[in-house]
Amino acid sequence: MMDIFIEMISYPFMVRAIIVGCLVSLCASLLGTSLVLKRYSMIGDGLSHVGFAALAIAYAFHAEPLTISIPACIAAAFFLLQLKDSAKIKGSATALLCSGALAIGVMTISLSTGMNTDVCNYMFGSILAMSADDVRLSVILGISVVLLFILFYNRIFAVTFDEPFASATGTRTRLYNMIIAFLTAITIVLGMRMMGALLISSLIVFPSLTAMQLCRQFKTTIILSSVFSVATFMAGLTISYMGSIPTG
After folding, report:
1. Secondary structure, 3-state, 182-224
2. Is residue 157 classed as helix, strand or coil in its secondary structure?
3. Residues with Cβ < 8 Å from 154, sequence gap 6 or more?
4. I want to staple 225 with a disulfide (CB 3.0 to 4.6 A). Which of 15, 114, 189, 207 is the partner?
5. Closest C-alpha among 27, 26, 9 to residue 18
6. Are 227 and 214 in contact (CB under 8 A)?
7. Using 50, 70 and 90 to split pLDDT, how confident is the model at 122?
8. Rounded to whole angstroms, what are the CA distances from 182 to 50, 130, 186, 210?
């Protein structure tokens, strides 16, 4: 196994994939625990579809993809946050956003460039799609997400477990909910390039759910979720690499 890992890191594109993938996995696991406990785990799925639609529009107008998808996902995250208090539509808002954004993305692609390789890479992910500029931007934004989560950890913990009590004690709960939504949107956009719009939400949900079955404290759940998330990514990347090695 060590020989395979050494062989993997001998390729520059694999090094870029490992750096960005591990960082995105860490960000997703940190935020996933709060999102799952707040019963808002499907926000990742909704934002990933919004990101795909934004990418399709960016390609149609020959714009830089990330400059369109990041603001679009942040706006969608805040929009979903505004709807969470509405009992009539909060259960279906994410589903409507998923289907609507995906339809817009497919229609835009069909009317402009067709289902080309670049757009399909964003839908299903591709480790070959990571350029040096993508890595630099992903590292900067990913480290920013981790640092902001650590900085606001106590407030995020309070808002996650008992939002009414946190609000009664003077905590600006709406502000910290917006911070969670903002960090989630950034993580989704970063992960779409490699994991794809259709799979990035699973990286937010499954490690956190698995860790919750084994831990009873918020901090230990986050730590174990981070370990599961990074390990799952590395295992998947290794299996994909081994499957691409010619045999015979």
Report:
1. HHHHHHHHHHHHHHCCCCHHHHHHHHHHHHHCCCCCHHHHHHH
2. helix
3. none
4. 207
5. 9
6. no
7. low
8. 14, 23, 6, 24
Query: If you compute the radius of gyration of the chain from its CA atoms, what whole number of angstroms results?
Result: 18
φ and ψ of 163, to 5 deg: -65, -45
Q: Which tokens is 154 given?
A: 């106590």
186-210 confidence digits (pLDDT tens):
888 888 777 777 778 788 888 888 8
How far is Cα 199 from Cα 75, in angstroms, rounded to an integer? 21
Helix/strand/coil for 38 = coil
CB 26 within 8 Å of CB 208: no
Q: Is 97 exposed, middle or buried (0-12, 13-18, 19+ CB in 10 A)?
A: buried
Whole-number Cα distances in Å, 226 to 32, 51, 211 = 10, 24, 9
Residue 171: φ, ψ to 5°: -70, 135
The identity of residue 179, as a single letter, is: I
Name the token pair of 247. 């045999």
